Amino acid sequence: MKTLATMFGLIARLRAQVWGTVALNTALGLGAVVPPFLLKVILDKLSTAARHGSPTAASVRLIVLVLGGMLVLRLMLAAASYVQERLSDILRIEAIIEVRQKLFTHVLGLSVDYYETHQAGEIVDRITQGVYEFGMWLQN
Q: What is the pTM assigned to this prediction?
């Protein structure tokens, strides 16, 4: 977890994009709540119409309007979901590139003593594992 916190600190430049993606995910989640409510409105109108014999023109109009609204909402949610997936992928790739570049610059700046006390495989494994975990965390 400490590694992830450190990696997230390395991408300070991308924080606005991260929060934008989180906001879009939240909006998509809230958008999934609306269709059941609209379906309830339709069912209420249908049950009222069934109790009174025949549907009125106003209730038929409302049902058609709500069904049209549900279709438009579904299309908007599909488009927003596509945009969210693309933005998340772009963000993940940019973040991994930035972390790799900063880690490479950091490794180049280490003293020779550091390389004498640590094996090359250990250094490479630590960097590779950290970037991999960070990428997986961003992907999920």
A: 0.64
pLDDT digits (tens, 9 = 90+) for 4-39: 677 667 677 777 887 888 888 888 888 888 888 878
For residue 59, what are its two tokens?
A: 């209730």
User: Could you tell me if 35 and 74 are in contact, meaning their C-beta atoms sit under 8 angstroms apart?
Assistant: yes
pLDDT in tens, 94-128: 888 888 888 888 888 988 888 888 888 888 888 88
